[in-house]
Amino acid sequence: MSPDLSSAEFRKSSLSGTHDNCVEVATNLPGLVAVRDSKNPFGPALTFGASEWNAFIGDIKLGTFDY
């Protein structure tokens, strides 16, 4: 079952400027983070647990993310 994202408030980085070739993130959902493609705002979104998302962002900031 997909989570209800109807109240998700998606935002993109202020560094994106006016470009629509970005990833948007919604962090206002309890315990959940949703990520979508800004070019397709009505398309699917990936969802992550808040702790998973925080670990991902932490690894990126530390430069230890290995994909």
Mean pLDDT: 89
Largest beta-sheet details = 3 strands, antiparallel
The radius of gyration is 13 Å
Query: Helical proportion?
Result: 10-25%
Topology pattern, helix = H, strand = E: EEEH
- Going across the biggest sheet, name each strand in turn: 1-2-3
Structural class: alpha+beta
Number of helices: 1
Contiguous uncertain segments of 5+ residues:
none
Domain count: the total is 1
Coarse morphology: globular
| Strand runs, count | 3
**Portion in strands:** 25-35%
Terminal CA distance: 27 Å
How would you sum up this structure, described in words?
- With 67 residues, the chain is α+β, with helices and mostly antiparallel strands.
- The chain has one domain (14-62).
- It is 19% helix and 25% strand.
- It has one helix and three strands.
- It has one helix at 50-62, and strands at residues 23-29, 32-37, 46-49.
- Strands 1-2-3 form a three-stranded antiparallel β-sheet.
- A hairpin with an 8-residue loop joins strand 2 (32-37) and strand 3 (46-49).
- The radius of gyration is 13 Å and the shape is globular.
Write out key terms for the chains shown.
3-stranded antiparallel sheet; alpha+beta; 67 residues; 19% helix
Q: What's the structural blueprint in terms of helices and strands?
A:
Elements: E1 23-29, E2 32-37, E3 46-49, H1 50-62
Antiparallel strand pairs: 1-2, 2-3
